[in-house]
Amino acid sequence: MRVTADRERCVGSGQCELLAPEVFEVDDDGAVRVLQPEPDDDAAVRDAVQQCPTGALSLEG
Ligand code: SF4
């Protein structure tokens, strides 16, 4: 699976980082950075994408 982030839409809530810290990190600019663009299929990663409050995260596969 492949994860992408729209940093313009991210508000830096940090929810994705809490759910899947190996894949997402809120950087010093207060916007998400994808640490692993092609992570192993993982329920926590899917949850993080679905629960982003601004819909900044997308998933393919
Ligand atoms: S959950 Fe969404 S808005 Fe919050 S830090 Fe992650 S990508 Fe940004």
UniProtKB/TrEMBL annotation:
Pfam families: Fer4_13
TM regions (residue ranges): none
Keywords assigned by UniProt, alphabetized: 3Fe-4S, Electron transport, Iron, Iron-sulfur, Metal-binding, Transport
Cofactor: [3Fe-4S] cluster
InterPro entries tied to this protein: 3Fe4S_ferredoxin, 4Fe4S_Fe-S-bd, Fe-S_cluster_ET
Residue span(s) of domain 4Fe-4S ferredoxin-type: 1-29
Superkingdom classification of source: Bacteria
PROSITE patterns for the chain: 4FE4S_FER_2 (PS51379)
N-terminal signal peptide: none
PANTHER family found in the cross-reference section: FERREDOXIN (PTHR36923)
Purpose: Ferredoxins are iron-sulfur proteins that transfer electrons in a wide variety of metabolic reactions.
Protein name: Ferredoxin
